[in-house]
Task: inverse folding
């Protein structure tokens, strides 16, 4: 399905089980797509727990661009997507994504009234530039729980455990996970289970 936003159309793959207990929105990194293996692993776990899951291709990717452009424009479009999907699934919202998508989920969590945020491969800083930290985006969630899963060898850095509810580091993995999906699902499952009761 498509959702029209102020930044153009977004494409949504929504799976809504009967009696869904929560709504999980997930989105991609800057140049990636929703077919990333870590996003699919989280989606499958959420579906097993009775959640509705929406994989969101943001408007800039639908338009064929690899870079998201203005964070203000991107965040506004995300909140429009959230509002449209909440009309379809009126359950607790958990939002997240990988890399740039994790940044969006953190920046908009309070405005979206999310119950939780999942940040996969949160890019703490550009590679080789730790002084250009994005820590404030991670902290923008306020009192909302945020679970971070990063690879130990991520050149974008790994957030400090004190800056999130939980920070799980997957040994030997770079920014784009090549393995360790069992660690990702084992981290996410108990955190999502609270909304599946």
Result:
């Amino acid at each position: 399905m498509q959702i029209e936003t102020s930044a153009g159309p977004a494409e949504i793959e929504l799976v809504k089980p009967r009696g869904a207990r929560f709504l999980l929105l997930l989105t991609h990194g800057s140049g990636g797509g929703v077919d990333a293996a870590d996003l699919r692993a989280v989606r499958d776990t959420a579906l097993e727990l009775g959640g509705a899951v929406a994989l969101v291709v943001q408007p800039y990717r639908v338009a064929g661009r690899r870079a998201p452009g203005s964070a203000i424009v991107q965040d506004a479009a995300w909140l429009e997507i959230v509002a449209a999907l909440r009309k379809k699934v009126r359950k607790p919202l958990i939002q997240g994504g990988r890399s740039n998508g994790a940044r969006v989920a953190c920046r908009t969590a309070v405005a979206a009234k999310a119950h939780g945020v999942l940040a996969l491969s949160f890019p703490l800083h550009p590679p080789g530039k730790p002084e250009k930290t994005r820590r404030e985006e991670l902290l923008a969630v306020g009192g909302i729980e945020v679970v971070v899963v990063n690879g130990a060898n991520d050149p974008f850095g790994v957030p400090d455990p004190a800056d999130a509810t939980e920070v799980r580091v997957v040994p030997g993995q770079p920014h784009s996970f090549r393995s360790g999906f069992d660690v990702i699902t084992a981290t996410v499952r108990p955190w999502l289970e609270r909304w599946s009761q």
Remarks:
- The mean pLDDT is 97.
